[in-house]
Pilus assembly protein (Duganella aquatilis), 152 residues
Amino acid sequence: MKPHRRAARRGSVLIELSLALPALCLIMLNLIFVGVVLFNYEMGLKAAHDAASYLASAEQRDMKNSAAVGGHVAVARAIVAEELQLLSLGPYPPSITVSCNMATCSGYSVPSTVSVTIEMRVVPSSLIPLSSLFFSEGITLTAVSTLRYIGT
């Protein structure tokens, strides 16, 4: 093979790489954003499950007392807040809903189920160009954990 053909072939490979590299970088950055969204969702599910597990094991006498059940609900919210504090959710704080039998935990009766719902918004970084174009308001994730009440 003559030397000038080899140099021409190397030049064409360089041009092809320069055309394909920006698209590959955009795909990689968007895959990272999808990974961040899935990680945040899994952390939300774990936090909801931990809070629901705590509430499902509260004592029956506390669940029948309207003053005591408020304390347990506050502890369940604190569990969620503590587990989610490491996530970078942007300017939107997560919304935490705690319910007994699909209604507010009132303390008038022992519930058969307890549920913790977390709504959080994941906002794409400005470093990920296409994600911030399509999801400028962010992606809202809802993590729900419902457990049977097993308190003693």
Summary: The longest strand covers residues 113-122.
